[in-house]
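Quick log. Single chain, no ligands specified.
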Amino acid sequence: MSSETAPLSIDVAVRQPDVAVVSVGGDLDVDTATELHYQLANQIAHGRRNLVLDLSAVPFMDSSGLNIILRTLQEARRIGGSVQVAAPTSAVRRILELTGVGLATPIRETVDEAMRGVADAVETAKRGRQDDEPAVDRAED
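-> predicted structure:
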């Protein structure tokens, strides 16, 4: 009898040039978190600043998985992006809520809802950049 966990499955769907949906399957723990971190970092390196993490097929997640989510969120925010968590299983949702990760990044019921959250985050970021631009006085025109 082996105590090995099933390999992590990761599927990436690029929905827009700067948005990727990363669907994760299997246990997200100390043995598999590095693989997810690599995949998420790769997406950011390829210009996908906004990530949706579909956790609907993750039955278990430990602190290693939480750490990867928080590190990815930090990196995405640094470059003006966002991370949305979509459809976590009840066990994973409980961990996200108990640890406060749900306060740092939205937890959405579905991938479609997360995609709408990305659109809202992008729009908010655009408005924020416009607010930072100096006003042009057009009264003299």
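The beta strands are 9-16, 19-25, 50-57, 82-86, 107-108.
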